[in-house]
Amino acid sequence: MKPALFLDRDGTLNVDCPYCNSSEKTIMYDDIFVPLEELSKKYYIIIITNQSGVGKGIITMAQLDEVNNKVKVEIEGRGGRVDAIFCCIHKPEDKCECRKPNTKLLSLAFSSFSIDREHSFVIGDDDKDMVMARNFGIRGIRIRRKGDENGDYFAQDFYKVLEVINGT
Ligand SMILES: [Mg+2]
Predict the structure, then answer these.
(1) Average pLDDT over the chain, rounded to whole?
(2) Are 105 and 111 spatial neighbours (Cβ–Cβ below 8 Å)?
(3) From the CA of 168, how far away is ligand 1's center (Å)?
(4) Which helix (H) or strand (E) holds 86?
(5) What's the pLDDT at 150?
(6) 11 CA distance to ligand 1 centroid (A)?
(7) Is the dihedral of CA 30, 1, 141, 167 positive or negative?
(8) Which residues are identified as catalytic?
(9) For 45-73, how does the pLDDT look when each residue is reduced to its tens digit (9 = 90+)?
(10) Is the pTM of this model over 0.70?
(11) Of 41, 13, 12, 14, nearest in space to 25 by CA
């Protein structure tokens, strides 16, 4: 059993590109790589992402896979690791249980890995990420790339995330 970092994808690991449909358009934030290399040694690294573009018919599953794969390959090419990527592909109006801030994808992660909940974190740039964390009883670290306010902890980038985690 070990703790997990549940990472949002768009706006957290890569520059948000709405309904991103290709690896060329997927631009990674440079500050994620060194911290994720260190964090991958102690934590499961699990990406949880809302991708309603699939449900809306704007992007295909193949395009979603291409972007997800780019994120994984970039992180793993720089010494980190991605254990799993869980996606909600529904539209908001589908009222599914997996679209953040709902917690079904967290439940799925907990049934797939032996995770120490108490020492885990959700890391994301959006209120939805922080609300999901709170709904599930996990601490949330808000990436403030957009200068937002809500969250248990705040970090301007992943170096600050590493400091926050090492300091808790
Ligand atoms: Mg985001």
Answers:
(1) 94
(2) no
(3) 23
(4) strand 84-88
(5) 65
(6) 4
(7) negative
(8) 8, 10
(9) 999 999 999 999 999 999 999 999 999 99
(10) yes
(11) 14
